[in-house]
Amino acid sequence: MGENTVNDFQTALRSLVRTPGAVLAIVLILGLGIGVNASVFSLYKAVLLDSLFFGASDDLVLLEQRIETEGSYGLPFSVKEVADYRNMSESLVAVEELHSMSFTLLGLAEPHRIQTDVVSAGFFDMLDIRPLLGRTFRPDEDAPGSAPTIVLSHRFWKEKAGGDPAIIGRSLVMNDKAHEVIGVLAPNMDLDSTDAYVTTPHCPTRSSEMMIGNRDMRMMSVLARKQPGVSMTQLRAELNTIADRLAVEHPESYPDGGRYTVRAERLHEAISGSFRNTGLLLMLVSGLILLAALANVSNLTLARTARMENELSVRAALGASRARLARLLVVEHALLGLAGGLAGIGFAALTTKLLAQFATRLNPLAARATVDVEVLAYAMLLALIVGIAAGVLPVMRLGRNAQPLHAQTGARSATASVHSRRTRDGLIVVQIALTLVVLTASLMMLRSLANLNSVKPGFTVENVLTARVTLNPARYPDAAARIAFASRLLERLRAAPGVTHAGLASVMPMESNEAFNSTRITLPDQPNRDSGALPVVDYRVAGERYFDTMNIPLLRGRVFERRDDANSLPVAVVNRTLAEALWPNEDAVGRRIHPEQSMFIGGDTVAWEIVGVVDDVRQYGPRQPEGPAMYVPVRQAGFFGRVALRGSGGMHGLRNVLRDALRDIDPQQPVDRVMTMTKIRSVAVESTELLALLLNIFAALVLAIATVGLGGLIAFNVTQRLREFSIRLAVGARYGDLYRLVLRYSTWLLLLGSAAGLVGALLIGRGLQEYLYDVEPLDPFSVALAVVLLFVIGSVAVLIPARRLGKLQPSEILSEQ
Predict the structure, then answer these.
(1) Distances in Å between the alpha carbon of 156 and those of 121, 152, 189, 190, 672?
(2) Angle CA(274)–CA(623)–CA(617) in degrees, nearest 5?
């Protein structure tokens, strides 16, 4: 048995070497299909299948509390609530809090505004995180009065501290306090934009008496580790029992009319969940590419087997049984599959890192994608399956002929030839159908991207530079100091050459996909109006030149002026949506609006008089229409966080102007997130852009495979029918008649494939629905264009082998038969 197997492999190798062109084509096509699937699988595995880097990560959970009403909404946790769940839960062995703040850090080469996670001291121990350098927090560093310490992310350490290992033990100043650097995390811990970590006593907001003593002051997220063996169902039941008890014990903190609940979700699912549908879609499309490659390769193997028929007949004549011949074919195609797998692994090795870099914009876990042992095994398993599947048809064809190959009659041979031709035609129809599916999906995503890019945002995108300028509360502790800084900054910017407009705001359009802040409202002029029926309003802070800088149209009244300060009547500007919702067919100017949430830092709620109405802007990206919104002046709210400049001197010049102005006013004031509005808008559509790019690459690959397959089939068909074509010419047919015959044949295949592909196009369109914008799941334009492209490229693929008909010499062909 062993000797026979070795002989089969040797014979199969010799057979493959005799047809190098066909073998190379098969290996390349299989390598392409397997490589794409291996790359996509590595991405899917990194995000959704691999465990997190944390120890026993399946037991880590993210808690979220909610008020279940008609409009269910989530709530952060307060300090008291974190303590309640830590003390009352028997299913949780650790409960740690987390919230993110932006602080100014001094002590490096220049000041930095860093994104800082404020965590309880057991946070890293609960996650079982070991640092690259130094240590993480000790339990006593959660106590009030403990020495301030800081742990740096690996990315921040490399980029801002030069990767200097001597950073451990250095003192960096933050919030007017010296923090000792005690640790640097490993690179695989950089799962978000966090620059550094500090413990709760060293966040001015978190450590304030108001925050610690007030159950209603909610700002924390909660991560926890459940007891091993406790199911998620048991945990959720216990948490909601605690929630019910808290609602009874503290009714003033939980509103009537809705049930207070707590949800628990595995941390891995919370981080990766948003990628699940995208990952499945990419796996599906890459699978379609592999099926198209398999159909193409099956056609090539049928053609190759047909050319080997004399060789197989000789082997049969020499005594080889049908089982032996079938085994040889299986071994040949298994070797072809394995060779294609090796080519696919090479392709995946070249593309996986590039794919991961793109996909990290969708999910940070994508950075872990690599061609590891599991991906190699997956690729080789696919290769073996596809190789054997490609050999099934030749083996079936061999087994279908009852007589020995050398003894087949002309009728038997003709019947087998007709059956083989129909099989090859069917495989081409499958390829065309799969190509139509992927091509339609690609075109629908391109249309969605074009529609998103054509959305008018309601403000100027070109020639606008924005930046985050968050003031250090230790240096600017009150509204007067912050407003004085704002005035000096605006004066410097507006006087600078090349700057035509400069303004301040709390948040820039399209900078976030969720509200900076929102509040319920009442209408002092209409006290009897049901406040519950009034819209929740998104509120923003804007300076007096902000609307001019962003070129947001003023519809009625006026915008803010310098006189709108702390000594004047509180005024507001509302957007068109809010004005039409509250005062349809009336003028909103002069009306008053009373937000339930204060617009001042630490101030009371007041009524604001509306002095102007501006047009809507796409504040949260081009996909989301603007909701009800109001703006209040920087000089009255007492804070801002963003600056915008518009000018004609180019973005580089505006960056220098901004940095010079800040350096002159306060050398310790950092500036970050310096971005053009064009870039911010691009980021807002990057998920659609990325998916469109990947689908277009996939569509190009599957279209190339189908084109090669159709051209190859026509070439083989022409070769097989040379005698027929010669006879037609001999009895009076013209070369044009032969061209039309071949074109009619290929057109029929294209029509059948397109018809079959329509069903798949509808199904994939429904799968894409959440990514589409202003495009129907089965978009007629995209389908029609895909069909036209198929016919154009298919016609080109057909004409190349059909040109051989023009060189046909009937006398030579007939004399050889």
Answers:
(1) 21, 7, 12, 9, 13
(2) 130
Instruction: Judge residue 212's burial from the number of C-beta atoms within 10 Å of its C-beta, 0-12 exposed, 13-18 middle, 19 or more buried.
Output: middle
d(C-alpha 596, C-alpha 646), whole Å: 34
Candidates 653, 658, 663, 665; CA nearest to 111 is 663
- Calpha distance 703→683 (Å, rounded): 30
Q: How far apart are CA 104 and CA 176, in angstroms?
A: 9
Report which DSSP code applies to 131. Answer: -
Amino acid 313: pLDDT: 56
Gap between the Cα atoms of 741 and 746, Å rounded: 9
Alpha-helical (H) ranges within 18-78 are 20-44
Q: What's the pLDDT score for residue 387? A: 83
Measure the CA–CA gap between 628 and 268, rounded to whole angstroms.
Answer: 35
Tokens of 459: 């403000």
Packing angle of the helix pair 677-684, 686-720 (nearest 10 deg) = 60
Beta bridge partners of 672: 468
Contact between residue 808 and residue 722 where contact means Cβ atoms under 8 Å apart: yes
122, exposed or middle or buried, with CB in 10 Å at 0-12, 13-18, 19+? buried
Residue 27, both tokens = 């290996």
Q: Helix 322-359 and helix 276-307: axis angle, to 10°?
A: 150
Give residue-wise pLDDT tens across range 752-804.
988 988 888 888 888 888 888 889 888 889 999 999 988 888 777 777 766 66
What is the chain's mean pLDDT, rounded?
Answer: 84
